[in-house]
Design goal:
Blueprint lengths: L4 E5 L12 H14 L3 E4 L11 H15 L5 E4 L5 H14 L3 E5 L8 H14 L4 E5 L1 H4 L5 H7 L5 E6 L4 H11 L4 E4 L5 H6 L4 E4 L6 H12 L3 H17 L7 H9 L19 H12 L2
Length: about 290
Amino acid sequence: MKLEGSLVALITPMDSNGAVDYDALSRLLNFHIDAGTDAIVAVGTTGESATLNVDEHLQVIAYTVDVVNKRIPVVAGTGANSTQEAIHLTRQAHELGADAALLVVPYYNKPTQEGLYQHFKAIANAVAIPQVLYNVPGRTVADMSNETIARLADIENIVGCKDATGDMQRGQELVRLCGDKISILSGDDATALEYMKLGAKGDISVTANVAPKLMSQMCAAALAGDFDLAEQYDAKLSALHQHLFVESNPIPVKYAVAKMGYTSNTLRLPLTSMSQEHEALIDAAITQASSE
């Protein structure tokens, strides 16, 4: 399958009691489809996957698939630091109708490169759904090398890699090694345009939660090779790229989406609401992105 453009790493909206707010989720999904978002990434890091239980995790995927109704692809976050748990979540997402799965590098237990290869190979062999690797060493500690990603790119149903290292020299090498086999996608909004200039096919984006139309326009322009236009769009997004990470993701983006009126500003512990001292930064960034 073809994954490119602006893929939103969607928040999971919650009501004031901390329960998943499915009415708000429906509004957000339709908001993104109307704004031109190219795919929904459900229950990833930004979707607070770490604090949803397995039943909730699968219910959010099922609801997302149902509301989206094949209008755009749904990529389900199904990674875990247990290979068997990742296989279970991926199999369930496949049965629920997700179009692809996003699989994060196992966290905390620090596997070797061979361990990473065998982990992702086992999931790919167990579940015949298109799969996207996700390397984010800033959160997982373990860091999947370009050489390991290139080995995995030879597996038929591994179709992409979300690279959130923010390292453009390394990204250029990754595109050279396997960009003709899988879709290389940025996982770092601030460097996404530069990465696309090097051959990445799009961005799995936190910023898209707040400015989906502008992110879609930026990615479309970059994919078309119109980098001057893409830079004009990206300039409006630059403050969001920066300030949505002023505290741990998804704390600031949850505040921003609540500020826009789509959900309450509720997160699950151990995450807490954003400090008031940062609110003006996010408010100004939203204004900058929405300016004509």
